[in-house]
Specification:
The structure holds 2 protein chains of 2 kinds. Chain A has a single domain (7-236), classed as 3-Layer(aba) Sandwich (Rossmann fold). Chain A is built from 7 helices and 10 strands. Chain A has helices at residues 60-67, 90-100, 116-126, 134-144, 160-172, 190-207, 218-222, and strands at residues 16-29, 32-45, 49-53, 75-80, 83-84, 101-104, 178-182, 210-214, 226-231, 234-236. In chain A, the strands form 2 sheets. A 6-stranded mixed β-sheet of chain A has the order 6-7-8-3-9-10. The model of chain A is unreliable at 1-13 (pLDDT under 50). Chain B is an alpha+beta fold. Chain B has 2 domains: 22-71 and 282-414, no CATH class; 83-273, no CATH class. In chain B, 57% of the residues lie in helices and 17% in strands. Chain B is built from 15 helices and 10 strands. In chain B, strands 1, 2, 3, 4, 5, 6, 7, 8, 9 and 10 form a 10-stranded mixed β-sheet that branches. In chain B, a hairpin with a 2-residue loop joins strand 6 and strand 7. The radius of gyration of chain B is 35 Å and the shape is elongated. Classes of the chains: A alpha/beta, B alpha+beta. The interface between A and B is large, with 42 and 39 residues.
Chain lengths: 237, 416
């Protein structure tokens, strides 16, 4: 792992999907500056699954929000697939996000009163994918998590493990360059956690998608190719 | 699985693709919004009912308003015939008293807003004898249209018709008090012979109707019979013009002098309008209309506030969903339009139900009062109702939609 990348490394041609250099994020409480992320450097290559661990309040969520372009860092450089994403406008970032990044959240956050198909269709609608192309892409994404047979099932009739697998399929449906997962096994039992992690490994191995998993679960981190620890805003490992 | 090729990501291409797929995206968002509203329809029942009923009320009142006015006018006799104008000739010094010619009456009947016309001849102090007793009364020669102008009907027997007038039939209709005095009752009078100026006339009917009490001491002959047989009866120097609605009274009364002057000598012409009852009726109707329209507007506004409230609550309760959608790549506009489409879906469906109810209401009212409202007016109301529902939907849904669209993903995703 190389988490001390310099500007010289920033080329779109190589396998680096995510490149973060000297990234900082400060919050302000009136005049008081509260540094949350301090000089973060991180590279994630295709097919890599990087675990970011750390105790509560260490800045894991802030890092995830910065990587997901939900929050603008205070300073630093952040490139995804060779594109300097911090220089983009808010709308451009949204366009970029829907093409490049997939998200898996701890609480799954499936749309209630909707079927599995409708949940997976939404990212495709936002991406402007033609209606006739959608069923194949949705089926393909569901097959990746072995849920093809549940395509017409209402989301509120799925088990916890199945819901998380649907949210993984939803993250995959737009064929992203990398996936950000926030405590993906946080609400699952051991058996379902192992299955989800197996799917993650399958995705990174077969589809060569890069993945950043924010977790404090040791078992999850053991399934990752690399492990970084975020402590008091400093990323080490 | 084969190694997937790396995406060639160019922002300009993404923006171009976003623009070119905008129509498809918004069409799908409309579908998603409709699905959302249908699945959560229970929360919208109250506002849909309010908007639907007010739209139906609006359509019925506007479409049927004119017919209702006309129908209401039939009952205006209670207030002194507010829609009846009485043009008459007044004698000026020693000149001959003018009277209404048939061609003048035809010209008056053609004035827009005139429903029917009639003219009368009069002999005051007419006498008759019955079983050696002498009775005095007012004798009026009238056309058959006289009954329509004053909404008279037959309390007993029948009122004479156009054929009786044309033939100069020797028939008479008497007021109810006169019938009681002479013959002892309405029923007893029918078929009796009444002697006037050495001519015998058969009593065919007793005058009935709201205003029949004013003429209970009158006897009515066909105008042709009266002119031919009654000594000393006047020429028809007085006429009555019934207007379709009270809104027609002023324009018709203004037009009358010119129309009469164009047809005949108008010396001594006077126009008598029942101004006070007319104003009274207008005032009553204005207040009733104000009350009805205020109720409709208040209901619609309440419906709008209802939608606003529901949409605001939806924005709060769906905060995480909004964050999630933005995380999936929804643009601010996608969120704005989705919420706006949902509000529009509610108001438009409510409006369509209202139009359907309005149509049923119009058909029922038409059947009830025997009216035939213009189809164009209904279509205009239909368009108006739909336009208003769109305005209401946009008006009530815009602020919550803007709020939803401007929500920060971080705040939305952290919302518990």
């Amino acid at each position: 792992m190389n988490n001390t990348a310099s500007q010289d490394n920033f080329t779109a041609a190589d396998d680096i999907v995510v490149l973060v250099s000297h990234l900082t994020k400060d919050y302000f409480n009136g005049e008081e500056k509260i540094p949350v992320l301090k000089d973060i450097n991180l590279e994630v290559r295709r097919g890599e699954m990087v675990a970011v661990m750390g105790p509560s309040g260490s800045g894991k969520s802030t890092l995830l929000f910065c990587l997901g372009l939900f929050q603008q860092p205070t300073s630093g450089v952040y490139r995804v697939a060779g594109v300097d994403v911090l220089s983009l406008t808010r709308t451009q970032q949204a366009l970029f996000r829907r093409e490049t990044v997939g998200f898996v959240f701890q609480t799954c956050d499936l749309l209630e009163n909707s079927t599995v198909y409708e949940n997976l269709e939404l990212p495709l609608i936002y991406a402007g994918v033609r209606k006739r192309e959608r069923p194949d892409r949705i089926r393909h994404a569901l097959d990746m998590v072995n849920l093809g047979h549940r395509i017409r099932q209402p989301s509120n009739r799925l088990s916890g493990g199945e819901r998380q697998r649907v949210s993984i399929a939803r993250a995959l449906v737009n064929d992203p360059e990398f996936i950000l997962a926030d405590e993906p096994t946080g609400q699952l039992d051991r058996e379902n956690s192992l299955r989800v992690l197996e799917y993650f490994q399958k995705i990174t191995d077969e589809a060569r998608t890069a993945m950043v998993v924010v977790t404090h679960d040791a078992m999850t981190s053991e399934h990752c190719t690399r492990k970084c620890v975020l402590s008091d805003g400093v990323l080490e490992g | 699985m084969a190694l997937k090729p790396r995406k060639n990501i160019r922002i300009e291409a993404l923006e171009r693709a976003g623009r070119s797929s905008a129509f498809r995206r918004y069409r799908d968002l409309i579908r998603v919004s409709v699905r959302e509203v249908v699945r959560k329809r229970r929360r919208y029942i109250g506002v849909v009912a309010a908007i639907a009923l007010s739209t139906a009320g609006f359509i019925v009142i506007i479409t049927m308003g004119n017919d209702l006015k006309k129908n209401f006018n039939n009952d205006l006799d209670l207030l002194g015939g507010a829609t009846i104008i009485n043009p008459y000739f007044e004698k000026k010094s020693y000149e001959r008293l003018e009277w209404f010619r048939p061609r003048t009456m035809e010209a008056i009947a053609k004035i827009p807003g005139v429903l029917s016309t009639t003219r009368v001849t009069l002999k005051t102090g007419a006498v008759t004898t019955w079983k050696d007793r002498l009775f005095g009364f007012n004798l009026v020669g009238v056309e058959a249209s006289y009954w329509n102008v004053f909404s008279f009907n037959a309390a007993e027997g029948r009122l004479f018709d156009d054929q009786d007038v044309a033939e100069g039939a020797k028939v008479v209709v008497v007021g109810t008090d006169l019938a009681r005095q002479i013959f002892g009752g309405d029923k007893e009078a029918i078929g009796q012979l009444l002697s006037i100026d050495d001519n015998l006339y058969r009593v065919v009917g007793i005058l009935g109707g709201v205003r029949a009490g004013d003429r209970s001491q009158f006897a009515f002959l066909p105008i042709t019979t009266a002119k031919a047989r009654v000594v000393g009866i006047s020429d028809p120097y007085s006429a009555y013009v019934r207007c379709a609605t009270w809104d027609d009274v002023v324009p018709v009364s203004k037009a009358l002098p010119q129309v009469v002057a164009a047809s005949q000598e108008d010396r001594g012409l006077q126009i008598n309008v029942a101004t006070e009852p007319l104003e009274q009726v207008k005032r009553i109707f204005w207040w009733v209309s104000l009350f009805i329209y205020s109720s409709i507007v208040a209901t619609m506004i309440l419906g709008g506030f209802g939608i606003w409230n529901i949409m605001m609550a939806a924005v709060v309760s769906r905060t995480r969903e909004i964050g999630l959608k933005k995380a999936m790549g929804a643009l601010d506009n996608d969120i704005l339009y989705q919420f706006l489409f949902e509000a529009l879906c509610v108001t438009t469906s409510a409006s369509l139900i209202g139009i359907l109810l309005g149509r049923i209401g119009v058909e029922y009212m038409s059947h009830l009062i025997g009216a035939n409202p213009p189809e164009g007016l209904f279509l205009m109301c239909l368009a108006g109702g739909l336009a208003f529902s769109i305005i209401l939907g946009v008006g009530s849904g815009l602020y919550p939609s803007i709020r939803a669209s401007r929500m920060q993903v971080v705040d939305a995703m952290r919302y518990e």
